[in-house]
Design a protein that fits this description.
There is one protein chain. By secondary structure, this protein is of the alpha+beta class. The longest helix has 27 residues. It is globular. The two termini are 13 Å apart.
Length: 171
């Protein structure tokens, strides 16, 4: 799934491709809090980085953690006016993932990794397209949890899956 935000004007934009991971654990979402607001972990690709290399680097810089990146969930782009860059066109791809280990303190000052319930952060991300990406992931989590509950009910209470936040693999 892909969504475009903003209106493209007939001007030259600065494109910036980025990759982000939406961390899930016990039905909580891992986000970064900075003085500017809440963000997903990730950022813009540098040099010839792959999406996975970008996410790995950004997670160390922003949170001092190693993550396991799973499936691509969605992507989005926006056309906007950036206070320093001017006409800006960020193109972001979002993946589901989980925290493996905290290995250091964040390299970026004033970056704090928080775990929040979806309802606590819904609509509060700094970037509108990151709010949308969180909604896409959360709708998948809710569908998956409902499916697991149904399987459990049909099986007479036996558990088919041990993790409530697991998502099905996308084909």
């Amino acid at each position: 799934m892909h969504k475009v935000f903003g209106i493209k004007e007939n001007v030259e934009y600065r494109d910036r491709e980025g990759a982000y991971v939406i961390l899930m654990h016990d039905n909580r979402v891992g986000i970064i809090q900075t003085p500017k607001g809440f963000f997903l972990l990730g950022g813009g690709l540098e040099n010839s980085e792959s999406h996975m290399e970008c996410i790995e680097r950004e997670c160390i810089e922003e949170a001092g953690c190693i993550v396991s990146v799973k499936d691509k969930i969605c992507s989005a782009e926006t056309y906007c006016m950036h206070e320093k860059i001017g006409y800006f066109h960020p193109i972001q791809t979002y993946y589901i993932g989980e925290l493996i280990a905290k290995v250091s303190e964040p390299m970026e000052n004033e970056h704090v990794l928080l775990w929040a319930e979806f309802d606590e952060i819904k609509g509060k991300m700094f970037a509108e397209m990151q709010n949308w990406a969180l909604e896409q992931v959360w709708s998948e989590v809710v569908k998956w949890n409902l499916m697991l509950i149904s399987c459990k009910a049909l099986s007479g209470g036996q558990r088919f899956w041990t993790r409530r936040t697991a998502l099905p693999r996308r084909q």
